[in-house]
Design brief:
Strand order of the largest sheet: 1-2-3-4
Number of strands: 8
Order of helices and strands: HHEEEEEEEE
Strand content: 25-35%
Number of helices: 2
Largest sheet: 4 strands, antiparallel
Radius of gyration: 30 Å
Helix content: 10-25%
Distance between the termini: 85 Å
Structural class: alpha+beta
């Protein structure tokens, strides 16, 4: 008998708490879709470039130890110094391919450049030269 009374009291308390919550939030039982509308509100945003480096960046952006920003692209490699850009494209003493996919700076300050179809290149900032490996 005590268990039955306890269960009934628990159900009544739950019922009254639920009703109070619904009324406090101005949600009536006749408008159940109002909760759905609140939970499914869409959020939209627009991405804008902070500056244009002249090519579409495809994957990697790194900042090297000297503060330069390096951007990989389908058309080569771009270095931004805060004022302007320098482009590196495939050619003699430069990149082995234009499609740059990966960038990494090692502890010696060398920029490692992964290209599609041209393998790995290494840019030495001290000698300003790019060597395919």
């Amino acid at each position: 008998m005590k268990n039955l009374i306890y269960k009934l009291l628990t159900i009544l308390v739950f019922f009254f708490v639920t009703i109070n919550i619904l009324l406090a939030d101005n949600i009536s039982l006749s408008q159940p879709n109002k909760v759905d509308a609140i939970q499914t509100k869409e959020i939209s945003f627009e991405f804008r470039q902070a500056f244009n480096v002249g090519v579409e960046v495809n994957k990697d952006i790194i900042e090297d130890s000297d503060g330069f920003l390096w951007f990989s692209s389908y058309k080569g490699l771009v270095r931004y110094d805060g004022y302007g850009t320098k482009f590196f494209k495939a050619g003699p003493n430069s990149l082995s391919a234009n499609f740059v996919s990966d960038l990494f700076e090692d502890s010696d300050g060398l920029i490692w450049i992964g290209t599609k179809g041209g393998g790995i290149n290494c840019y030495d900032k001290k000698t300003l030269s790019t060597l395919p490996l």
